[in-house]
Amino acid sequence: MTKVITAIGLAAAAAFAFAIPAQAVEGRMGQTTACSKLNGGKCKAGSVRDTRLGQQVRLPGGTWVDCEGDCKDKLRQKTVDFWYEQKLRN
After folding, report:
1. Positive or negative torsion for Cα 69, 75, 81, 87
2. b/e per residue, 42-69, with b = 16+ CB within 10 A?
């Protein structure tokens, strides 16, 4: 019985931890614009926020992704040059 209760408690704690969205640190947000390397006229803008784990950029669909260094480059890779980046990786 104790094992069942412990397992349920751990599962609930894990579900709660993953349900919490990354919160901005001190509310700092900004904006960046990324233009295609292939088609200079094609650009997308996205919001940038600081989180406890680093910066994130918001994609046009609303998803926040980790910048992994350069938010402008990450936005470009995930939007205007998406298929070009896929081709490079394969």
Report:
1. positive
2. eebebebbbbeeebbbbbeeeebeebee
The burial of 38, by beta-carbon neighbours within 10 Å (0-12 exposed, 13-18 middle, 19 or more buried), is given as exposed
φ/ψ region of 47 (left if φ > 0, alpha if ψ in -120 to 50, else beta) reads: beta
Take residue 79 and report the two structure tokens written for it.
Answer: 């939007």
Instruction: Give the pair of three-digit tokens for residue 80.
Output: 């205007």
Measure the CA–CA gap between 64 and 22, rounded to whole angstroms.
Answer: 9
Strand ranges across the sheet with 43-51: 24-35, 43-51, 54-58, 64-66
pLDDT digits over 15-50, tens only? Answer: 444 444 555 455 578 999 999 988 767 999 999 999
Q: What are the residue ranges of helices labelled H in 20-81? A: 71-78
pTM of the model: 0.67
